[in-house]
Amino acid sequence: MSDTTDCAYCGCDVTVHDPVYVREGGESSETPYCNYGCLAAHVEEEGLAVGTTCSVEL
């Protein structure tokens, strides 16, 4: 049995990087990413930030 955790974006072993773990909504499980670069690439490719900006009143 392996002690590695694969990045949800690139598939690399996150334990050899500076990993980021994401938990969505009320889920108890976390999705691993190597670093913020892989997370940002995933968000960009999937269009996850489109239409989700906060409303800022100046």
Helix content: 10-25%
- Supply the number of structural domains: 1
State which percent range the strand residues make up.
Answer: 5-15%
> How would the global form be characterised?
elongated
Question: In whole angstroms, how far apart are the ends?
Answer: 54 Å
Order of helices and strands: EEH
Biggest sheet: strand arrangement: 1-2
Q: Mean pLDDT, rounded to whole units? A: 88
The number of helical segments is 1
List keywords for this structure.
alpha+beta; 58 residues; elongated; two-stranded antiparallel ribbon; 10% strand
Task: Please explain how this structure is put together.
The chain is an alpha+beta fold and 58 residues long. It has one domain (1-49). It is built from one helix and two strands, in the order ββα. Strands 1-2 form a two-stranded antiparallel sheet. β1 (20-22) and β2 (31-33) form a beta hairpin. The longest helix is centred in the last third of the chain and has 11 residues, at 36-46. The protein starts with 19 loop residues before the first strand and ends in a 12-residue tail after the last helix.
Task: Outline the fold blueprint.
Blueprint: E1 20-22, E2 31-33, H1 36-46
Antiparallel strand pairs: 1-2
In short:
With 58 residues, this protein is an alpha+beta fold.
